[in-house]
Fold this sequence. Notes:
Blueprint: E1 33-34, H1 46-55, H2 68-78, E2 85-88, H3 91-102, E3 108-112, H4 117-125, E4 129-133, H5 142-148, E5 153-159, H6 171-180, E6 186-190, H7 206-210, E7 215-220, E8 233-236, H8 239-246, H9 256-266, H10 269-292, E9 296-297, E10 304-308, H11 312-324, E11 327-328, E12 330-332, E13 337-344, H12 348-363
Parallel strand pairs: 1-11, 3-4, 3-5, 5-6, 6-7
Antiparallel strand pairs: 2-8, 7-8, 9-10, 10-13, 12-13
Helix pairs in contact: 1-9, 2-9, 3-4, 5-6, 10-12, 11-12
Catalytic activity: L-histidinol phosphate + 2-oxoglutarate = 3-(imidazol-4-yl)-2-oxopropyl phosphate + L-glutamate
GO molecular function: histidinol-phosphate transaminase activity; pyridoxal phosphate binding
Enzyme class: transferase
Amino acid sequence: MTDATAPAPKPGILDIAPYVGGKSRIEGVAEPMKLSSNENMLGAGQKAREAFEAAVRNIHIYPDGRATKLRGAVADHHGLEPERLIFGNGSDEVFALLNQTYLTPGDNIVTGQYGFLAYRISALANQASVKLAPEPQFKATPEALLAEVDERTRIVYVSSPSNPTGSYNTAEEIRRLHEGLRPDILLVIDEAYAEYVTEPDWETSFPLARDSENIVVTRTFSKIHGLGGLRIGFGYAPLKVAEAVDRIRLPFNVSVPGIEAAVAALGDEAHQQASRDLIQTWRPRMTQAIRGFGFEVLPSAGNFVLVRFSDAAQAQGANDYLNSKGVIVRPVGGYGLPDCLRITIGTEDQNRAVLDALSEFAAG
């Protein structure tokens, strides 16, 4: 008999470092500028807000477990087959569902050295291991990812664009990666920041996934649509994958207000365009200005920039100075980048506040 005094988690759970989101408060500052979570700083659009408010009258009713209304809207908007869509409480849940469906103890996932932490957490929770492909140029390459694949690899995760580095993979690179994988390995392509990409050699992987039995493409309503607080994400998957995931998906994992707001957001092209315009205007301005202060800024295809300092101490000093000015950005030491800060592109006033503070920090 064991001498246990309390229920014990299964092996490995207590070894997982919990995910820590960008902080939202500064002691003594009533309304700080929160630029730490890559949210849409224009907020949700008017149509989404009105749909959310109208949904209040129905919050006593369970949501449609199939999210039929949203399923049809997403399928129409992106030209996808509705039966191949997986909806989740954010795209984070889609990753967790895929890991739960396909990983067994001893299996592994492969992702980039700086890949989104959510992929890893649920893989470890399923007693699988995580293999990280090196990103010496802050970008996961097909060759580096394929080099990590072994006989126990079940899923390969790629972020394009990638958080927190801002790098992306070209359409040709994604095709080359897919061609190099065994057909029994699932390739998951996370396109959370897709709507912000302007580079001509990037393409959505929806068409590639349409004719494949082992590609899942994920999107989120948290970024361009400004619905981070409602937690709506989806995956476009082979029908067999979608049907397998549906067997373990919780029956009411997407809320009534979330469904209604997401449908309205898809139809609000004016808000989407305003959100794109903000990033396309300020991302290059922020990049140029911060480089002018003597700091490295990595090229970014997302709604944020990653600023690299001379060392971790200088990054910490910059973070502290920004906080003293009421600005919250994201240290990314948890990604193995202790000398970097990730800064969400905000409104004009917010961006100018960031630039003023970094200019003063550099001068001091």
